[in-house]
Input
Amino acid sequence: MRVPSTELQNNFGRYLKYAEAGEEIIVTKNGRDVARLVKAEASESRGAASPYRPKSEWVTYGEYRSLVEQSEHRYELIDGVLYNLASPSYAHQEAVSELLARLRQWFKGTSCVPLTAPFDVTLKKAEDNICVVQPDLLVICDRENIDADGKYHGVPALVVEVLAPSTAGKDLTKKTELYMTCGVKEYWIVDPGRRTVTVYAFAQGEIADYAVFRGNDTVRSAAFDGLSVPLGELFGE
Output
């Protein structure tokens, strides 16, 4: 992202947040590149960021929209924190592809449709806390909430996240709480490393039930009766 020096001076806090999230800010003066603002090497993972940040340090939804309109990178916004989305691994994509094929077959002919990232899901935890995520997989059953521009304004019935070392902390904690709070019915956490799938069923903002599937188990949905996936096929055995 290229920013004139006067714009950086007037809105330094905003661009500092962008740099913290991994965006490279090129500072220009009289049309020439003169400096670079980049993220310093962190002492701990971004996934460990505190949810109790002062509001003055939060990235607002408006700031998030401004960033994504200018950046070539993909970001998520959760509880005022920006997360830069890295490219997934082969094992990650293999699991996503297998699940997508099965979900598309199972939901064919119904009112629900499975989709994959990148696809924005905007969830409102509070009036001043609007979050935007791109789940690896999601199933939406409220297609009436897709506007004329193809933007989705509803809450998915089912969300799937496939763990990676850089995102595991966020997926296991922040996203579990986000999906539970905002009305998602079911959340699958797929762990290719441990070859497990954890299924959470949510109701009224709480965990109603959960199950961990491993080994020769068959993953079974709590929200959609009859939806199942053998683990051996999911992990390429």
